[in-house]
Amino acid sequence: MPHAPTGGTAPTDALHGLTVLAAEGGGTQTVDPSGPIGQLITAALLGIVVIIVLITWLKVHPFVALTIGALGVGIGAGLAPDATVTSFGNGFGATMTSVGILVGLGSMFGRMLVDSGAADRVVDTLVRRSSKAALPWTMALIGALIGLPMFFEVGLVLLIPIIVLVAKRSEVPIMRIAVPALVGLSTMHAFVPPHPGPLVAVSTVGANLGTTLAFGIVLAIPVIILAGPVFARFAARWVDIPAPDMFGSRGTGSSDPAHAGREARRGPATQDTASLPNGKSDFTRVISEPRSPSFTVALVGILLPVVLMLAQAVREATAPDASGGWVSLLDFLGSPMIAIGIATVFAMVFFAIGGGMDRSAVAKSLEDALPPIAGVLLIVGAGGGFKQVLIDTGIGGVIADAVQESGISVLLVAWVVSALVRVATGSATVATVTAAGIMAPIAADLSTPETSLLVLAIGAGSVFLSHVNDAGFWLVKGYLGTTVGQTFKTWTVLECLISVIGLVGVLIAGVFL
Questions:
Q1: pTM score
Q2: How far apart are CA 435 and CA 457, in angstroms?
Q3: 272 in helix, strand or coil?
């Protein structure tokens, strides 16, 4: 993963007074602005407006909207049509090279986690060992663990049956259970790679993935505590509703992504006493439970890529000039593609063995992981193309100079840009890739830690104010059985808390870097 350059300043065009940058090979090179400053600014603003209108009003897929907007910005800024297409293609290809492989491997790992029963094992073990008072904190931990390797929508569908059942059987208000779990899941989605949003932001602004991962995990802790178990106390008072009668057991059929894998792994019938917090046991059942990996194996698989990437980041921070075989090995194992690839192979072997999956089941699980991410990959790639057009036209230089001369914190600007696109489009991924493209030229003069904080500021803004144009809003409303007003009081508020607390944490960290 390329690092943002930290020394010197970019060249300045004497004619237009612009800082002109080009992100190629991890460095900078002079780019002649394609037109006067007024034309560049107008083209950029109109392009962003076009993207938002296409997505929100005409309901055009974000990939098509970003592509049209990027090409329009390039041509409108005075770049030749063929040069605009080339610029967009270069940005698309570079982004897919750095992000596409990671998203694909991450999706495969997440699917194996679900289909093998490893996700079930983690959830069940943690819930069974928790007291009634500790359940909100346990659910926050479960949300975070499930959120590490999984896309938000998959993690949400997987967690909802657990949330409902735990609330029903423990007699704890459902919002005390649901809010912490949703906060853990959403916080990981916003701040921690290998989720597509943070990954594309890391690639676009040239941040170090290991450093961003470390900062993201540290930042996630206070965010999850304050927006999760702490806020859940208030949410339960504001919205006091019974747990919905959605699931008699774990989710079934298409409502549960783990259902097919669970049915394929069922073993012989056994008698089981369902245990709950405080020693309460509400029924005994004769069941045919599916096999699943042990809790230890599941936890090792989830944390393996995180540990490898963090180890490489720690080595780089503490011994940047070290050399030798151990350094090369650590750097190799900690590179994102290798770390996530190792975790995927680990899942293919150990999750499959523990879950009783044969080779055909593993192959099907890996195959089924890829179609759902096709749209995400295209959006991410188009965001990279949009970023490159901004740079090649010189618009990036205009933005960089304007922010630097304004005296406003770069981190605050990044959060505002991301939040505005999020509120307008309802998509955290679109907000992230758009904001990262706009802020990329500014990152060229930031240090490595500052660039990672820039990524986190963009991630914080990308989850701000979820409302009626966000698919997640309607998913949560439908699953929990809340009204629109109740969803605003709970889901929308917790998303705002994640965003604002994350911003405050980033700004505080920025003071000391």
A1: 0.74
A2: 10
A3: strand
